[in-house]
Specification:
Elements (H helix, E strand, L loop, with lengths): L34 H26 L13 H9 L6 E3 L5 H7 L3 H9 L22 E2 L8 H18 L8 E6 L6 H12 L4 E7 L2 E2 L2 E2 L10 H6 L3 E6 L3 H15 L7 E6 L18 H10 L2 H12 L4 H24 L18 H16 L14 H8 L3
Parallel strand pairs: 1-2, 1-3, 3-4, 4-8, 7-8
Antiparallel strand pairs: 5-6
Keywords: Metal-binding, Mitochondrion, Oxidoreductase, Potassium, Thiamine pyrophosphate, Transit peptide
Family: Belongs to the BCKDHA family.
GO molecular function, one term: metal ion binding
Length: 401
Amino acid sequence: MEFIRPSEHNAIPTYRVMDQYGQVINKELDVETSDEEALTLYKNMVCLSIMDLLMFEAQRQGRLSFYMMSAGEEGIAIGTASALTPADVIFCQYRETGVFMQRGFTLDQFMNQLFANSKDYGQGRNMPVHYGSSDLNIHTVSSPLATQIPHAAGAAYAVKLQNQQQSDKEPRVVVCFFGEGAASEGDFHAALNIAATREAPAIFICRNNGYAISTPTRDQYRGDGIASRGAGYGMDTLRVDGNDIFAVRRAVKEARKIALEDGGKPVLIEMMAYRVGHHSTSDDSFAYRQKVEVEDWKRRDNPITRMRKWLEGRGVWDEEKERELRSVLRKDVLKAFEKAEKLKKPAIVNAFAGVYEELTDEAKAHIAELKDILERYPNEYDVDQYEGGLDSLTQALEKKQ
């Protein structure tokens, strides 16, 4: 009789391609990325970083109601998205802005969602940073923690059936992002078990950034991180250095191959990083961690600095290009920001539309009641800030079904 004693086993190793100084560890394998592609990845990471800083400041000025930054985790989102095909389906948590950016979500689209204006895809029905795009095959972000994980498991099973039935099309996988805090939810365990038993082509990516809102990892679990749980569910598992965008890309590319083997199987990847920013604009992380800890990580290692060192080592980047890039991107972000801020809010009728294909009698009664209140108290409600004013409510009531 021999008990398994975790303390007597070595920790799961962390895969990396380059070290924190931007030096490739295995020269024979290199990075499998062209200089041109690497520059695109780098520019997207810098753009994401600049947008984060500007939007954080905008929230502090009262111009946005809420925002969440990706500082320290840019390489995970952008690196993963770059290693997938456009048809692969993605479920994000709330710190995957880089996934949208890498797939082609524009600055205008980001700003429209943040301001919930008339051009927002969600028509103002969701919180800021809860992006979504059917065109890009990315499901809309939702606030409840971990709910996207079982959704992704179900979608992966559906994709498995589609891959079997549509042999003329390129097979797809489903990718799901979540933080290590979400891995403490029951949704995580249920989803991994379903995906494993149904042999669904899913790639579960855990961003282990050290903190679940205000709880450090030492208070979240006693085992060897999140990766150790993959083996328990019979899943191929890997731990990756999330500050190394080349390691992220190679790991996801290989995980995608594995996920499509023998009709499908799930894969778990734990991406190790450090959350440099606050959890959100509603959080003050210095209440539960020392500022010197954050500054040390900023100085010591992050995905943007590491990749810049690699680019400079290749002779394709320098300080002058860096200044020019940051100046141009800052102007682009501010231009999109100012344009979106001036647009009107979505039509008022969107508060009722979209639930059913046609408005129900009950919904029409609610619309009529709201219209009556707005007309009786014009000085109390500014309807001009909404596209069409009261007309959208009038048109909805007059429309024949």
